[in-house]
Amino acid sequence: MNLMLMGLPGAGKGTQAEKIVDKYHVIHISTGDMFREAMAQETPVGLKAKGFIDQGNLVPDSVTNEIVKERLAQSDVFQAGYMLDGFPRNLDQAKALDQINQDLNLNLDAVIDIQVDKNLLIDRLSGRFICRDCGATYHKLNNPTKVAGICDRCGGTDFYQRDDDKPETVKNRLDVNIKMNTPLIDYYQKAGVLHQVNGAQEIDQVFVEIDKILNAIN
Ligand code: AP5
Ligand code: MG
């Protein structure tokens, strides 16, 4: 099963991805996570991406398409299936993914669009914190750790907030992504693979909706 998760910044792609991986064991491929890792290691891709990410802009398609192409060609993807998170983000990337799938003889089975009104997203992003050891995502009010200061998943005690969750950057990230979102939704609707879920519900309830969709296609 090969999937794509789409949704505006803060919609809950990463949060739902953790739950989907636990149940369906697909390979989670987040372009945002790949760029953050590359920036931390100061690789050539990380150095190219940094200026764009710090401003809340999209990294150029040539860079993004290439890292996805390399990742999808790895053997674990063929065994377990992929779950893209945050890619494609515009029509050119969607067309690039079609070409990559064709070249690798893969098929995109479902696109899950997590829909959340933009007014909710600023609060979600400003309250987010992430475990430095395992990457689990939390929220100060909506989804805190069960025991304060200790990661539910790995027991880690070191958490961080993302640099691009600063209020000035968040606004631009939302504007950039809102512009790209509608054409992408139309594209996948026409392709007959689009499923939309209400991402304004509680985290577990959003997963119930996604799980129903995945159950039906798996
Ligand atoms: P990326 O890392 O993908 O960021 P994003 O798209 O802005 O999305 P987020 O990761 O911020 O949100 P999310 O939907 O994963 O929400 P989460 O589950 O964490 O990309 C970062 C940057 O990299 C981009 O800006 C761009 O520069 C670059 N980039 C990446 N992909 C690219 C591409 N394809 N092309 C070009 N550039 C690219 O949840 C958010 C918070 O809300 C958490 O605190 C969580 O606990 C809480 N929460 C989640 N669900 C709920 C719920 N149902 N109710 C209440 N709270 C909830
Ligand atoms: Mg994310």
TrEMBL record:
GO molecular function, one term: AMP kinase activity
Gene: adk
Sites where the protein binds AMP: T31, R36, N57, L58, V59, G86, F87, P88, R89, Q93, R162, R173
PANTHER family referenced in this protein's UniProt entry, alphabetically: NUCLEOTIDE KINASE (PTHR23359)
Organism: Bombilactobacillus folatiphilus
Amino-acid positions noted as binding Zn(2+) in the UniProt annotation, renumbered to this chain: C131, C134, C151, C154
Enzyme class name: transferase
Name recorded for this polypeptide: Adenylate kinase
Span list, region NMP: 30-59
Subcellular location: Cytoplasm
Catalytic reactions on record: AMP + ATP = 2 ADP
Protein keywords: ATP-binding, Cytoplasm, Kinase, Metal-binding, Nucleotide biosynthesis, Nucleotide-binding, Transferase, Zinc
EC number: 2.7.4.3
Keyword field contains ATP-binding: yes
